[in-house]
């Protein structure tokens, strides 16, 4: 469990460092909210891959709900960001 959490932490830190560089380069941080929502989906999928499969029906429900929520929110924010800008 500790190894999985450490791996997830390193993945998040690497992604945030890359996103920080992109934000500085384009001088806009408003896209981070989009990546945050989709990042929750990525993190739950990464964790699922590491443990093999969700634990029982509640694990599957959590996987599905996080995927639906993060996907919907990230897509909504992307559309708004593209329409309105920063």
Structure overview:
- By secondary structure, the protein is an all-alpha fold.
- The protein contains three helices and no strands.
- It has helices at residues 2-26, 32-51, 56-84.
- The radius of gyration is 15 Å and the shape is flat.
Briefly characterize the structure.
Helix content is 86%, strand content 0%. Helix 1 runs antiparallel to helix 2 and helix 2 runs antiparallel to helix 3 (56-84).
List the total number of helices: 3
Tell me what portion of residues adopts beta-strand conformation.
Answer: under 5%
Query: What are the secondary-structure elements, in order, as H or E?
Result: HHH
Terminal CA distance reads 39 Å
Helix content: over 70%
Q: How many strands in all?
A: 0
* Average predicted confidence as pLDDT: 91
Task: Give the structural class.
Answer: mainly alpha
Uncertain spans:
none
Major β-sheet, in short?
Answer: none
Radius of gyration over C-alpha positions, nearest whole angstrom:
15 Å
Morphology call: flat
């Amino acid at each position: 469990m500790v190894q999985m959490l450490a791996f997830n932490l390193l993945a998040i830190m690497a992604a945030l460092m890359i996103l920080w560089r992109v934000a500085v380069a384009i001088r806009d941080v408003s896209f981070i909210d989009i990546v945050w929502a989709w990042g929750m989906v990525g993190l739950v999928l990464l964790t699922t891959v590491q443990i093999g499969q969700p634990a029982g029906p509640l694990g599957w429900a959590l996987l599905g709900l996080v995927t639906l929520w993060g996907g919907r929110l990230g897509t909504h924010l992307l559309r708004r960001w593209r329409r309105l800008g920063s």
